[in-house]
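Please predict the structure of the following assembly.
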Amino acid sequence: MPNVSMTVNGKQVSGEVEGRTLLSTFIRETLDLTGTHIGCDTSQCGACVIHVNGQSVKSCSMLALQADGADVTTIEGLAAGDQMHPMQEAFRDCHGLQCGFCTPGMVMSAVDLLQHNPDPTDHEIREWLEGNICRCTGYHNIVKAVKQAAGAMKGQAAAAE
Amino acid sequence: MSATGIGASVKRKEDKRFLTGQGNYTHDIDRPNQTYAYILRSPMAHATIKSVGVDAAKGAPGVVAVFTGADMAEIGGIPCGWGVNNKDGSPMNEPKHPVLAEGKVRHVGDPIAVVIAETYEQAKDAAEMIELDLEELPAVIDMEKAISGSGALVHDDAPDNLCYDWELGDEAEVDAEFKNAAHVVSIDVTNNRLIPNAMEPRAAIGEFDKATGEYTLYTTSQNPHVIRLLMGAFVLSLPEHKLRVVAPDVGGGFGSKIYHYAEEAIVTWAAPRVGRPIKWVAERSEAFMSDAHGRDHITHADLALDAEGKFLGLKVYTKANMGAYLSTFSTCVPTYLHATLLAGVYTTPKIYSEVKAIFTNTVPVDAYRGAGRPEATYLLERLVSKAAWELGIDQVEIRRKNFIPKDAFPYQTPVALQYDSGDYEASLDAALKLADYDGFPARKEEAAKRGKLRGIGFSTYVEACGIAPSAVVGSLGARAGLFESANVRVHPTGSVSIFTGSHSHGQGHETTFAQLVSETLGIPIDNVDIVHGDTNKVAFGMGTYGSRSLAVGGEAIMKALGKVTDKAKKIAAHILEASEADIEFKDGKFTVAGTDKEMAFGEIALAAYVPHNFPHDQLEPGLEEQAFYDPMNFTYPGGCHICEVEIDPDTGVVEVVGMTAVDDVGRVINPMIVEGQIHGGLAQGIGQALLETCVYDEDGQLVTGSYMDYCMPRADNLPDFKAATTETLCAHNSLGVKGCGEVGAIGSPPSVINAVLDALRDRGVTDISMPATPQKVWQALRAAEMPAAAE
């Protein structure tokens, strides 16, 4: 079986995989990073969104081998130690999660939105998150959380300047 | 109000683990040396199993074992939890529901064999090698055809595919009201079949410990004790003390994870046979064809009114799809959770309801968020709006005219239930204000300028939840009691573990229940842990469904907390050398009335475990109490949902531009969580009304078998919600709580469809079915324009 190596959450990792092994499976089964969830088999639900080389990706839509040499961040790598990322904080603050299953993918996707668009409108947030299905919240509080995180991150950026 | 007590929007204790990827769902659990199961399912809706050739699969790489229905024939079938009688008093038809198919398959997805292998991929590959010889039989999909007497039989021992033919009320008595009526308004509605789609697919891990003879099942369940009882006692004949069921973090349920499923029994039964743990995780496409579906009613209803628009009588005839087998609570949904709600919020004096439950070659149908109550609310609120339009009465006025007045509680309905409290005018008034009803004509006019048809729709509803008084449901055929248990364990240094039989799969129990403890004992919320989801930790539990967690599970906690404070007072009296009657407990402090003597809760806790001078004949050491709570009645949340839509007449696209919900859920413990529950329910209600439906073709193939085909509500399909609460307290529990988990999904669908019809009625459209897709709306508009052309 071929070997694959990549950086995940800042650590160099490698492992043997089958050619057909999905990146999502490699992350969950080989690396035991179970925060990345599998909610469907048609790349529709978005529970498995991670960042590959800084971009949000549905990790079920890539083979593990395609990520050879990539820099990967999963939900486990988003917080700085005990300090949650402003997006994570905002989701908690706005009650943007209930059962928590879609949450990792939703948060990773939302973080990438703000990389592309630091000040999105409600409409832009809803359009961006169209590929992440949540069955619990009705999205209202998720939209609120993303807006709040955008505000917090702008504040942080201003303070850093 | 304290910052962490009753009424505070405390941020959730469970969130950090979910937000950082530390949740522990069944799929995340790996047991040492585990194997993986793949279930081979029927590709046909109805067929005779001629043979299942497993030899090649058994020899495939990595395969540990293959089992078929023949191997499991000695075990029991999956039981149904509720018996319903026919009109003549005879019991319902209850065919066997085998764990693995025996002789026939009866729906696409019916499990036929299980392959257990070293890896999931190997199990799945080997399943391809099973030689399946099925002789296809005609499938029965349509309910009308199923009971026509001319089609195939799903079960040879269920004539006309009838499970039961049940009634509530006296048809002749209601007919008499109709003779005096000035108007009769009739409606035919379909409550579309839905696929629950909790985001976490079901999963199960079976394990057997040879040394102790104990089985463990990890499963995605809303009620692990119920699974232990159903699977242990009825399917596998395993005693409770040798069977542990763990439901760890569960990623949403909405009803679909109440039931005992075949896969749970398969992995538990097979674990000792392969001598290793067995893990099964559903793929989403499997979930579509094996999770119990919801709704699926066809109803005809007639409403009799006097000349002023007062309701005189109601007759409702429903056909309810049971699918191929009876799932755990399937039989009570169209009867005791549906027909008993047909009074709604109105004073209709005479009501008759008939329900025929029908077998078809489809996935079993059972409770899905709301369960029976959305179906009742939908037909009733559609009918009320239709009556208003036909009689030329205002939508709001016809409702007000027929409301049960707020001073009429307790109110005995003609359909068995006695509502304990409510104020329907209050929630209607609040909703009208929040939705800016007065501004609607101007908004409609403005929309018309943009070429859009704007409509407003109402739903004023009541539901029965907090399920349920054991005595009542027992007399109606439930084969279980529906109480809840709680155990309060005060540790020596004053922290508290609460063991609850309720189960949280998104509802936030770890926070809301901790607020009850923080408030009652006056201790910091961080000193409280809520333990749930493990039959080896929690004494007993009936689980979470029917919006029962707070109203039943929370009350059990309150009862146990009461016992703890009673005992703590005894300890305080002893130590402070006072009479027990003089001990007061407030804000976490025990004081002797009229003195400055006091002890903090933590000091009492420590004393309880360091009882150096306790009078042991009067005072036991320790501080731990258990309680079981069985409610006196259902609880009756109610409210008003107002939907506003804009329709593009050229495309038929319906946009929800306003969704207002004012719900009376009794006392609110955590407003943030309650609002979140309502939002989620509204999303599912709008989903049912506009987007979601399960489609089978006439051969019984599931057409909507993936997220590519089944239209889940996504972020860009839904509006911001306006949600608020009014409050009348539940009259029969100490907290005054009613339950909030289902109200959104119960109240909202008719408000959406009534809004669509309000928008379309100027164009001559008088009916549309759920989901009101662009195609249906467009066709309805064209048909109204040119009746002949659209055919």
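The CA atoms of residues 21 and 129 of chain A lie 26 Å apart. Chain A has five helices and five strands.
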